[in-house]
Amino acid sequence: MSPHDASAPDSPANAPFPSATGGASGTGARPRVLVVGGGFGGMMATRLLAHAEVEVTLLDRNTTTLFAPLLYQCATGILSEGEITRPLREVFERDRNVTVLLGDAVTVDAQARRLTARRPGGSAFELDYDYLILAAGMRQSYFGHDEYAEWAPGMKTISDALEVRRRIYGAFEIAETLAPDQREPWLTFAVVGAGPTGVELAGQIRELATRTIAKEFRHIDPSQARVLLFDGLDRPLMSFGSHLSGRATSTLRRLGVDLHMSTRVSDVDETGLVAKYSDGSEIRYEARTVLWTAGVEAVEFVGELARATGAKQDRAGRIEVNDDLTVGTHDEIYAIGDVISLRNLPGVAELALQGGIHTARQIQKRVKGEPDARSPFKYRDLGTAAYISRFNAVVEVGPFKLWGMPGWWTWGLIHIAMLSGVPNRIGAVLSWLFHITRDKRHERAITPTTGATPTTQREAP
């Protein structure tokens, strides 16, 4: 058998990984908790369990935790990738009962309580557990058209954000070298999806074009760049309610964003997209930069866990959980965050954070042998927020609805508080002050690509 074959139990590459207390998994005196995913929920659960009488292993496919709500600011040059990430090993450096591992969860044997993970090089290793917390998060969905991803990158990872940055800034650079009659497609940006990420991205592209780089070019006028925002619903930010959605609509229009609501994108290729409207008509738009924020789906491991436990999944692949966030009949397996399907709860950061707190407390109680260790999960809706442009944001916190400058200040305070680590908070504040006071963005480095890509100009010889 190949040493990379996950089914080769005798291969050294697949031997159970040593636990934090030494020896093979299963020899430690304390219960072993395996957390899959170092996002909001996984981080919160691990932080709390770091002070419990358990051995925690945190498995993630990345070396850092990511503050995903600010990815669009990394993509548009306001913040660096370092300001919205923090190394997981640094976070848990002093927690001796926490082991951080780099790997991708692949399969799980729910009966044996053993998970198989894959290293970056492709070889496999196994992890035994007494409790498993699934906090893997979701990935971008193209609704059955994965071929769109080549021409329309999503916005879920640091790699996505850097690719989006390359395409946005690269489009202006390419337009500068073209004849006037060839520039328009390169100065047209199409954003698919009018949820928070799509709205924030569309607003930032227009603000970038009309303020930051407006006077930097000699042959093009960046302020003439078109930003098209597409969504199948009637208005942007529909989940915020009619009042705030209306405010967002007005702000986007003032910025110069072209709204194409009640539309479905039916095709995407190298040179643009096709939009199908509610009246049945179809229109093609020539846009050399198409960005996709329109949907999410579960990562493959969620399906593996569902098959291993007999749990059901919804259309997006989210796994159905019990009221206490356990999965099926396996009370040792928990799922938290946007991968769960429970009472139509929203897939937002607060759901993950509260799920991490609930799950960690449940495990702590069970380890201590306390009664009532399987209480139902109670979600508190603490509100939502979206940044549209400088001094303009919409925020809903309980009964309070804020927009414009008050919304912008509230949005800033919320995001500063949620960033991981004091250095990241200070860095973000300084970057925002630099951007606000000088209309500048200092994170504009892009790397050129080779070969055929959507931002490579192709001309006949």
Characterization of the model:
The chain has ten helices and 25 strands. It has a six-stranded mixed sheet. The protein has a four-stranded parallel sheet with strand order 13-12-11-17. Strands 6-7-8 form a three-stranded antiparallel sheet. Among the domains are: 12-61 and 103-140 and 297-368, FAD/NAD(P)-binding domain; 146-294, FAD/NAD(P)-binding domain (3-Layer(bba) Sandwich). The model is unreliable at 1-13, 18-27 and 451-461 (pLDDT under 50). It is α/β, with parallel strands linked by helices. The N and C termini lie far apart (50 Å).
Feature tags:
single chain; 461 residues; alpha/beta; FAD/NAD(P)-binding domain; six-stranded mixed beta sheet; four-stranded parallel beta sheet; globular; disordered N terminus
